[in-house]
Structures are given as structure tokens and as C-alpha cells.
Write a structure and sequence with these properties.
The protein has 258 residues and is an alpha/beta fold. The protein is 44% helix and 15% strand. A seven-stranded parallel sheet has the order 3-2-1-4-5-6-7, with helices on both faces. GO terms for molecular function: oxidoreductase activity, acting on the CH-OH group of donors, NAD or NADP as acceptor.
Length: 258
């Protein structure tokens, strides 16, 4: 097979949670450029509409569905709608996430539950539905979890404590390992991307006061840019990564190496 064919996603449908902005939209651009039909979900319809117009301007075929990943009962019907209206889901990108900053002894329980429900529990329910309905019956699938370097290590004591976020992303890292081994013989690969600091709405508050400290701790001395996740996302979504599964790959400018 020619190398270009290994990366070709023509005829594939990719469901991307939290796809209306930030890293999810960057991944949508990459997969759509290589031929995938892109389906975006997020909570806010206006942001989805803006993303749809943006992708359309790039010549990318896309659909959008307003949905809350924390509403577990809505997720299997969502998958059913996507399958009925767009097509079987070949690629699932679990990108939607939530965070909360507070010292552990002051961390509200409801905030802890919100982070866990989006970052882990909703991801589990959605993944379960896509596996059951689409990937396992057809013997092919790509699951890409967007974890974080925060799931690979603790926090710098000079930064705002984010115990719930770190814990949830650490859970997603091992979710990736455990699920990958379970479905490996059935044509489905499961990998995660672990970004470092990228300028997004979620990181805006942290960067406002801690950007210089982050840059000082990053060997490349810069934040992640708009093209830095695209190549890896395309690799993990395509036939070029058929023998890659269970991996948690940091894209962090070298932070996790020091």
C-alpha cells in the first residue's frame, strides 16, 4: 500500500467530542483534510455552528450535534442518531474535558464529580456505545483519547492544584491501556494523546499567571501551537497505526522528559 493510502481517511466517519473549539477543532481539521466525515459534539450550539462554518470554509464535510457528555442517558441515543444520519462511526476522539483548580481540602465535591463525569464517566459511556454499535461488529475502529501530561505526573507546587483533573486524566491513561488490550484482537486500536500546555479556553486562567513558569520548565521554551497535534491525530486515526495500540503519547515540548 502506498504511504498516502495508509493515511487516507476517505469514507471514514470521525466523532469528536468537544470538537467546537480548541484541540478538538484542530483534530477535526486534520482528519477532515484527509477525507474523513467529521461529526462534532459540544454543549453550545452557537460554538458548533461557528466550527461548522469554519470547517466548511476549508472544504471539510462536517455535521454537528449539541450534547452534554455529562448527561449519560443522552449518549447512546446520540450515537444512534449519528449512525442513522451520517454513517457508522469509524473513529472516536474522546476530547471533551473539564477542569477545576482548588487546594484539595477546599475542593467542592460537586466540582470533583463534574470533572470525573466529563473526563472519565461520560467518556466510558460513549466509548461503550460506539464499540457496541459500530466498531466491534465491523471489526475496525480507532479510539483516540485526549488525556494530558497532567495524567502522567503531579503538579508543580507553584501552580494551582488541580487534583480532580490530574486524577481523571491519569484514569484516562490507564483506561487507554486496559481497553486497548481487551479489543486489540478485534480490529480496534486505542491510544491517547497527552498534550502539554496549549493556549485554549481551558488553560486561559493558568496561562494568565503562570505562562512564564511553564515556558521555563518546557525544554522547547514554547507552548503548543495549532499544528502540533494534527500529525499524531492523523497517524492514530489511520491505517498507518494499525500495529500501535495502548500508547499514551506526550505532545508537550519535552516537559515529561525532564
Amino acid at each position: 500500500m502506498a504511504l498516502k493510502e495508509l493515511f487516507d481517511l476517505s469514507g471514514k466517519t470521525a466523532l469528536i467530542t468537544g470538537g467546537s473549539r480548541g484541540l478538538g477543532l484542530q483534530i477535526a481539521e486534520a482528519l477532515g483534510e484527509y477525507g474523513a466525515r467529521v461529526v462534532l459534539t459540544a454543549r453550545k450550539q452557537n460554538e458548533l455552528d461557528e466550527a461548522l462554518a469554519h470547517l466548511g470554509g476549508l472544504g471539510i464535510t462536517a455535521s454537528v450535534y449539541a450534547n452534554d457528555l455529562g448527561d449519560f442517558a443522552s449518549l447512546d441515543p446520540l450515537v444512534g442518531r449519528v449512525v442513522s444520519e451520517v454513517g457508522e462511526i469509524d473513529i472516536l476522539v474522546n476530547n471533551a474535558g473539564a477542569t477545576w483548580g482548588a487546594p484539595t481540602v477546599e475542593h467542592p465535591l460537586d466540582a470533583w464529580m463534574k470533572v470525573m463525569n466529563v473526563n472519565l464517566n461520560g467518556t466510558f459511556v460513549l466509548t461503550q456505545s460506539v464499540l457496541r454499535r459500530c466498531m466491534l461488529p465491523r471489526g475496525w475502529g480507532r479510539i483516540i483519547n485526549v488525556a494530558s501530561v497532567a495524567g502522567l505526573q503531579g503538579n508543580d507546587p507553584g501552580m494551582t492544584p488541580t487534583l480532580a483533573y490530574n486524577t481523571s486524566k491519569g484514569g484516562l491513561v490507564n483506561f487507554t491501556r486496559a481497553l486497548s488490550s481487551e479489543v486489540a484482537a478485534r480490529g480496534v486500536t486505542v491510544n491517547s494523546i497527552c498534550p502539554g500546555y496549549f493556549p485554549t479556553k481551558m488553560t486561559r486562567g493558568t496561562l494568565a499567571y503562570g505562562e512564564q513558569a511553564i515556558l521555563d520548565h518546557t525544554p522547547m521554551r514554547r507552548l503548543g501551537g495549532p499544528e502540533d497535534l494534527k500529525g499524531l491525530a492523523l497517524l492514530l486515526a489511520s491505517d498507518a497505526s494499525t500495529f500501535v495500540t495502548g500508547q499514551n503519547i506526550a505532545v508537550d515540548g519535552g516537559v515529561s522528559a525532564v
